[in-house]
Amino acid sequence: MSETDNLPGSDDGQIGPPPEPAPQPAIEVAVDDPFPEVALLSAERLPPNFRKHVDPKSPVPLRGMAAKGLVPLSPSDMAHCLAMLALDADQGIVASAKKTAAGLPDKILSVALRDEGQSPRVLHFFAEMLAGKDAPLEYLALNNTAADKTVALIAEGTTSPKLLEIISNNQLRILREERVLRAVINNPNNSKAIVDLTCDFAIRSGLVLADLPAMIEAHVRIHGAPPAAPESQEAQVAAENSAEALIQEFGEALTDQAAPPMEDGKRLTLTQRVSKMTISEKIKLATLGNREARGILSRDSNKLVALAVINSPRITDGEVFAYAHSRTCPEDVLRVIMNKREWTRQYRIRHALVQNPKVPLAIALRFLITMRQSEIRDFAGDKNVPSVIRVQAKKMLEKKQ
Predict the structure, then answer these.
(1) Disulfide check for 44: which of 24, 200, 258, 259 has CB 3.0–4.6 Å away?
(2) Is 266 within 8 Å of 253 (Cβ atoms)?
């Protein structure tokens, strides 16, 4: 897939560059930040007239109101606000914010924790505050924006078989993060049936944790024998085609976002090596690798690999646009793009989604009304877009006349 960056206009639908936003206070985090790849929490996420409630320079009573949940914010904004105030310099504010977060009613949590536009930092904060409360933790476990380490934390601490089953059913997380798989297998509250199904899936996908008895049993069930010893030829071949081995061999060409494009011969070698990898190793490479790696993996026939690419924390807006524009893009990948506010705020991505026949009509029509008049006119006469989009574009033009 090639990137196309030349649609007219800016991302907010206006001509020319958008004005520089005023700097907003961001929360500082500790040196051992668990989410170095995730943007810091910022007041810019909140409506302008409420940002004063998280500004460290604001009076303590003003911040204290928000920490107690007394400010009329939407559920998602309230969650963001409380997570910011939980890192406040005033310990009284911190204590209030944490107490409020732990006691929020379900009608707020059900909206705030399902929001896939929420920051992973906010979701992790609530996973810690809601420990032992299985109902709201289910919202977190089902939210694709939640970090794998957040879901692992939930899986390690829950006593709910239902919650463990929900986590086990997310195949991408199981293959992408070993800690999640270990938590699902080792939690004594999980049913043996779910543990066996999870282990069988992992083994079939090429992921083996040979130190876990349940995984060894699954390997015997699937392959008729225990996993190969580390010194065996089979194990060595698997190690040579792991994500770690390829990253070590190709170095910056696979990890550096600014690395120049590979030479054709080297890319062919890499493509051949990637084709020999197991599904679990491809998912790891999609998560850790750069644009070069993702470009090769984006053509993989396995749905989970494609989902790992679009969910990579290092994916660029240009790559997302290329996916949104591609008519061969898997529907599951398009669904991820459509549900992520960070991407659908961009004009060119919405434009591409309107044109893509794989996008559900209800979504395409919703984005169509945000298009500029010139683009609506183009859609009205474009036989390559779905007929319903064409008809609706014509109706919109008629109303303008």
Answers:
(1) 24
(2) yes
State the Cα angle at 140 between 134 and 146, rounded to 5°: 145
Instruction: Name the DSSP class of 45.
Output: G
Helix axes 148-157, 134-142, angle to 10 degrees: 150
Residue 274, helix vs strand vs coil: helix
**Token duo for residue 378:** 């183009």
Angle formed by the axes of helices 317-325 and 347-355, nearest 10° = 20
| Whole-number Å distance between alpha carbons of 385 and 367 | 14
Q: Whose CA is closest to 207, among 177, 229, 169, 246?
A: 177
Token pair in block for residue 202: 């992992």
Q: Find out whether 53 and 66 touch, Cβ atoms under 8 Å.
A: yes
Please, which residues have CB within 8 angstroms of residue 28's CB and are 6 or more apart in sequence? 40, 87
What is the number of other CB atoms lying within 10 angstroms of the CB of residue 26?
13
Polymer length of the chain = 401
Q: Which residues on adjacent β-strands are paired with residue 42?
A: 26
Does residue 198 contact residue 181 with C-beta atoms inside 8 Å? Answer: yes
- Taking only the tens place, the pLDDT of each residue in 229-274 is 877 777 787 788 788 888 888 888 787 777 788 888 888 888 888 9
Residue 250: burial class (beta carbons within 10 Å; 0-12, 13-18, 19+): buried
Residue 232 burial by CB count (10 A; 0-12/13-18/19+): exposed, middle or buried?
Answer: exposed
Backbone angles phi, psi at 42, to 5 degrees: -135, 150
Q: Which token pair is 93?
A: 């504010």
Q: Are 118 and 144 in contact (CB under 8 A)?
A: no
Alpha-carbon dihedral 246, 150, 114, 349, rounded to 10 degrees:
-30
Count Cα atoms within 13 angstroms, Cβ side, for 258.
0
Chain-centre distance of CA 276, in angstroms? Answer: 26
Structure tokens at 224: 């008729």
Look up the pTM and report it: 0.80
Helices (H), 68-209: 75-85, 91-102, 106-112, 120-129, 134-142, 148-157, 161-168, 171-176, 178-186, 192-204
pLDDT, tens only, 63-116: 999 999 999 999 999 999 999 999 999 999 999 999 999 999 999 999 999 998
